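Hey, resending since the last one bounced:
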Amino acid sequence: MDLHAILVFVRVVRAGSFTQAAHELDLPKSSISRTVSHLEESLGVRLLQRTTRKLHLTEAGQAYLAEAEPALQQLDEATRSVSRLGKEPRGTIRVTAPVDLGILALGEIIARFVRKYPRIHIELSLSAKHVDLVAEGFDLAVRAASRMHDSSLIARKVGSTSLGLYASADYLQRKGEPKVLSDLAQHDCVLFRGKNGRSTWQLLGPHGEESVEVKGSINVDEMLFVREAVQAGLGIGRLPPVEWGKSCASVTQPKRVLPLYSVSGAGLFVVTSSLRNLPTRVALFRDTLIAELSALDPVSNLTGRL
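The structure tokens again:
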């Protein structure tokens, strides 16, 4: 296969004449003509009909162009990609993620990444809202959702969230431990995005999905605060089955109650706005996030956001 001949053929077609193609490629017109003729001979078909005024693609020429041009573009992109590998990646990456995941997991991932690529800077925005990546200038996001609805986003699922019911030893000593799901209605609960001191919890248990109405004096929209409130003995809360981190190493771990019940949470996704023309630094960090978050066992050990 003569890649040079294929390139010359494509340039002749796009230029519309041998003369213009010769000018663009800085080659003699006679050389351009011979190259196309040799390509036709090797293929055993006529690709171009030549007249004194204009070139016309034959049926075979149209079919060959349709296959050859995308292949040349892919080779060109492969060449650019490989050439970038020889250059040290640099620049700034803007990332948005849920607060709890950012605090519990992304710190260590980012630390390892910037040690490996010291000329890359990470700007991390921790927020509960789903930002518009393009409008707000973010390169990628880590999101928790039941599904990704925006078709303009490229999302890779790396895990799923899951929650259990937890209470501190102090709370259980004062209030007792619930034995059946309906007992929760008589307990103080730490509410996550409840309303007017009440919430309906949907849980999966031995008999499938069940619901229970709960109440509590604490209502919050951030999972990390639920964790702190449960640890402080303020009630029973829905939490990921976490190792509670180095900062809590000296504190008695809360106990899981009604262990046969859990909350099936959302999926966890690494999201970019587009895969085309993705800067090397962003592609590297995206792949790092996918690899490291997928390797967590399970991802639900790190995030409980619904």
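Residues 110 and 295 are 15 Å apart (CA to CA).

Sorry for the duplicate.
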